[in-house]
Design brief:
Mean pLDDT is about 85; it is low at about 1-10. This protein is α/β, with parallel strands linked by helices. It contains 13 helices and five strands. Helix 8 links the parallel strand 1 (about 145-150) and strand 2 (about 170). It has a five-stranded parallel β-sheet with strand order 2-1-3-4-5, sandwiched between helices. The protein has two domains: about 1-95, Orthogonal Bundle (Arc Repressor Mutant, subunit A); about 130-285, Rossmann fold (3-Layer(aba) Sandwich), CATH 3.40.50.10490. It is elongated, with a radius of gyration of 31 Å.
Length: about 290
């Protein structure tokens, strides 16, 4: 009980340092006020600074820093620094406990959404501007785009194909099985692009299709979970989206977001064309939905 009381009193004393600064502030000199302002705004930083460090940073004499600590009622700067450090320790402990409690209170849905967001940030930081531009150019310059995916990647392939079609780009997503791939590859030429998506287990068929298309002169792109996957190795260009180990299943969210970002970047290059197409589509819809004399 006595130990708990001592800890409580010590914590109260630690927290009083900011209040002590507030109370003494009106009677501080101009230089001391600068010190007080700095301590209040940056006491986490001050906790790791010597008196000479503070003096150099604020362009004051070290003696001024020491007198400032004494003006607040401390024998010297070391005692002042100790209280600052105790405050920081208390806040770090509270922050740690708060984070753990928040983790426990956080719903599974929100927690895994946060994991997905972390994955997105990590992937975005790995995409070089040159690679992003080359991918855009490959898709923008293709007369026809084929998007391939097996298993969980099939809906993602359909998403990219449909989104490109909305932009007025000729795109299709054939079944990624032997007969369909053979038929598709027979149509592939140098003016085409083939995109392979691998958001789950690696697909040898899709990888081989990328390799064959590349041999025919087509631009090939892979969106995969690993840069060493068969699809990534077979493609001319590859963007890898490593999964978050905290997630129990392979995530498709990062690749889905990457697909949307690719489509949005292409759309930004076709704004005038999209506007014209939207106006034409609106006029056609109005005609089709109206009554006309025959």
């Amino acid at each position: 009980m006595a130990g708990e009381l001592d800890a409580h009193l010590r914590a109260e004393k630690d927290r009083m340092i900011l209040e002590r600064i507030r109370q003494f502030y009106p009677n501080l000199t101009r230089s001391q006020r600068r010190l007080a302002d700095f301590v209040v705004a940056s006491y986490w930083e001050v906790a790791f600074m010597t008196a000479s460090n503070v003096a150099e940073l604020l362009s004051v004499n070290e003696a001024t820093v020491i007198r400032f600590a004494q003006r607040l009622g401390y024998p010297g700067y070391p005692e002042f620094l100790q209280d600052i450090q105790d405050v920081v320790r208390e806040e770090l402990a509270a922050l740690g406990d708060s984070s753990q409690e928040a983790e426990l209170r956080e719903s599974l849905l929100r927690r895994h959404m946060r994991y997905e967001i972390d994955s997105l940030r990590r992937v975005a930081s790995h995409i070089l501007p040159e690679l992003a531009e080359e991918v855009q150019n490959a898709l923008q310059g293709a007369r026809r785009i084929f998007v391939l995916g097996q298993g969980v990647s099939a809906p993602l392939a359909q998403l990219l194909s449909t989104s490109l079609h909305v932009l007025g780009i000729s795109a299709t997503s054939p079944l990624a099985e032997t007969l369909s791939l053979a038929t598709m590859l027979d149509q592939v030429g140098e003016d085409c692009a083939v995109v392979g998506i691998s958001a789950g287990p690696d697909s040898l068929e899709v990888a081989n299709a990328l390799l064959y298309a590349h041999q025919k002169g087509a631009r090939t792109l892979a969106l995969t979970q690993s840069p060493v996957s068969a699809c990534a190795q077979a493609a001319e260009l590859a963007i890898s989206c490593p999964p978050d180990e905290r997630l129990p299943l392979s995530s498709v969210a990062v690749i889905a977001t990457l697909i949307d970002a690719l489509v949005q970047s292409l759309a930004s290059l076709r704004q005038d064309e999209l506007h014209d197409r939207a106006e034409r589509a609106a006029a056609i819809r109005e005609f089709v939905s109206s009554r006309h004399n025959r």
